[in-house]
Specification:
The chain is mostly helical. The protein has a domain of 339 residues: Up-down Bundle (Sodium/glucose cotransporter), CATH 1.20.1730.10. It contains 21 helices and no strands. The protein starts with a helix and ends with a helix.
Amino acid sequence: MDLNVIDYGAFLLFIAVVVAVSLYASRKEESDTDYFLAGRGLAWWLIGFSLIASNISTEHFVGMSGSGFGAMGLAVASYEWIAAVTLVAVALVMLPLYLRLGIHTMPEFLEHRYGSGPRALMAVFMLVMYVAVALASILYSGGLVIETIFGLPLVWGVWVIGALAAAYTIYGGLKAVVWSDLLQGAALLFGGLLVMVLGFKAVGGAGEFFAANGDKLHMILPADDVDIPWTAMLLGIWIPNFFYWGCNQFITQRTLGAKSLRHGQNGIVFAALIKLVIPFIIVLPGIMAFQLAAAGQLEVGAADTAYPALIKELLPVGLRGLMLAALFGAVMSSLDSMLNSASAIFTMDLYKRHLSPTAGPRKLVQVGRAMTAVFVLFGCLIAPGLANPAFKGIFNYIQMFQGFISPGIVTVFLFGLIVRRAPTPAAVIAMLLNIPIYGLLLWLLPDVAFLNHMAITFIILVAVMTLITIVRPLPAPVRFKAQSGLDLTPSPFAKWGGAAVIVLTVILYVVFW
């Protein structure tokens, strides 16, 4: 793709502004609370934009749009619309408890509930997943987009993205992350809307698009579908969503940094409302690419290249640099969040808890910065290997491999909240059993959707925890004592806004049944 001076100028100016604003906003981060939780001073609008920008990255523009191009069509939007409802549950049920305890990380919550063993085990699981799955996939998908559109080799693109995101994340911590997310999230939404509008124009208008693609615009797929059967909507798809939005440090870290419960809840519900719109700017362009390719108007190789190919075909000279900046921002916003979260878990849950309990705030910040560099190094080394066709697309890779830990963690969190006499061994055994049970299901039932594998794993683990609790219950129910000085007044907007999100989600499923 040929870029002119305006393209290069738009891209470089955007990146310079993001880095400058992020570093300025985080110039006084000295303690662990400052560095990992932005001093617990985040407002709702920063939280909401940061949640969306951290979540939506090139694995969505590449992977989810590619799924829209492929057999799933619009049904892949269930990950977004179910997420919106899940966010409401997190805001109203889980966040009040997290903020009352004043925790820094999700594994820390398990120590309040079960003890130090489950906390350390979850921390190790999360670090492996972040580096081998999440970081690597973000870097790979970003490198793929840059290679497809701009011709830079995949490996070079991976290392450039990793180095730039690591630079200001190492320096500024969470506050740098959320301010960069604000700018990059706005560019991301604008760029996605621009491609969607130009896509509708290319296929002859919205009416022509919906008339020509009726078979790809169904949310409910047959029970034997290998990706998202309707049976997965009953339980399976809720497990990765509750894991991602309620138990995942990568996402919850900005809500833990809220200045009050009201700001945290408002930010989450604000993000849920935006979530309802995301499929229209990501999945629909993938379907448009399919329509244009079938008509011989667009050349698309693998499904994961559908969105980059659409950008290359539709955007005029002068706007390509802006879209590059938006896509680059999408990678950076997810990558910087992931790096900061991984360093927070290592520093607070492993280093401070087990390696150096007396370490002071400045030492913890130093360790966090050093581990950020280590994690990005490993991610860059792993990322190019994800081009292997055996992974069946980057979005599938992310969702499927999370199943080795997500059902166990969700089971331990939810069971521990509901059954207050569940003992420590129940949590440890459930998380450890998750790996062989899920792996065995993938091997024995390869033609069954992995979401159903997650559901079966979850049910088995609930049964195991129930049996252990019956045999060895705690002598008294666990009580969570308030340990933070935050204002914990609930938000009226979150209650009514959450109800609106649920109603709108139901309407969307009815319309696209």
